[in-house]
Amino acid sequence: MADDVAVGAGRTGVVLVHGYLCNRAFWQPWQRLFAARGIPCIAVTLEPAWGSMDDCVPDLDAAVRRMAQATGRPPVLIGHSMGGLVIRAWLRSRGAVVGDGVGQAQAAQRLQALVARVITLATPHRGTWIANFSHSVNGRQMRLGSDWLRDLAADEPQALAARMTCWYSNCDNLVMPALAATYPGADNRLIADQAHVQLVFDPQLMQHCAAWVERVQACAAMSCPSAENSGSARSCGYSGAKSASVMSNSCCRSSITK
User: Fold this and answer.
1) Any bridge partners for residue 166, and if so which?
2) 4 in a structural domain
């Protein structure tokens, strides 16, 4: 499905970032959803398939720049699995980091200029046990506690957590343990009883994410401080799943009604 940026002027767009060994075609149901709601959307293909995640950053950078040029606004980035890590690596490459004379406040300003929101779906932010069996460069980078993951986290500003929503599942068959798909301090949300790929195409999760993009757009149009500063979904009226950090398995099941 072709990218859709024609409706982009003055709107908040979305860049979709696939996971390990996938490509942009993975996102076709999402592209159709966004097209139906008039949301500008680009799906990127990351290369090289087996290389370092840092080597995938130029592909994402080109897509983000294209979307920002078309809309005049920083986009929402949605990444599945490894795609969420590539998003974080891209933010690092664009200077949204602390250190070398850059403090938390300056890094937060850079982050705000780059991205409206980061939404990750089953992303192994802390690594995954199953990556121990991978011999590819990016597979090794996704091992629990890998040097690459530690270095990435060490550079990130505190403000990133406030702009991030992380969906994870208690039944993820690739990210192990399940909480490895959460990010410290972020809006971590549990979608119960969904496998690693299955959760991406949960109809209500997709609708929740589309509604969040529309609320970002509405807040941006009104220069809403909550959209620019807090990063909280609830600040713009989002009423989806409860934060995973405060709910039990029983209420997790009611967070997205099946």
Assistant:
1) 120, 188
2) no
Higher-confidence position of 155 and 230: 155
Which pTM does this prediction carry? Answer: 0.87
- E strands, the chain, where? 14-17, 41-44, 76-80, 117-121, 164-168, 187-190
| Geometric angle at alpha carbon 29, from 168 and 178, rounded to 5° | 10
Compute, in degrees rounded to 10, the torsion defined by CA atoms 173, 176, 182, 184.
180
Token look-up 């993951």 returns 149
CATH of the domain at 214: 3.40.50.1820
* Cα 176 from Cα 25, distance rounded (Å): 26
- Over the stretch 163-197, which tens digit does the pLDDT of each residue have? 999 999 999 999 999 999 999 999 999 999 999 99
Residue 2: CB atoms within 10 Å = 10
Full DSSP string of 93-128: HTT---BTTB-HHHHHHHHHHH-SEEEEES--TT--
pLDDT in tens, 187-230: 999 999 999 999 999 999 999 999 999 999 888 777 655 444 44
What's the angle, vertex CA 128, arms to CA 199 and CA 161, rounded to 5? 70
C-alpha to C-alpha distance for 142 and 237, rounded to whole angstroms: 34
**3-class DSSP assignment, residue 202:** coil
Alpha helices (H) in 166-242, listed in sequence order: 203-221, 225
- Domain of residue 251 covers 14-255
Count up the domains in the chain and report the number.
Answer: 1
Give the pLDDT confidence of 34-79 residue by residue, as tens digits: 999 999 999 999 999 999 999 999 999 999 999 999 999 999 999 9
* Residue 105 forms part of a structural domain: yes
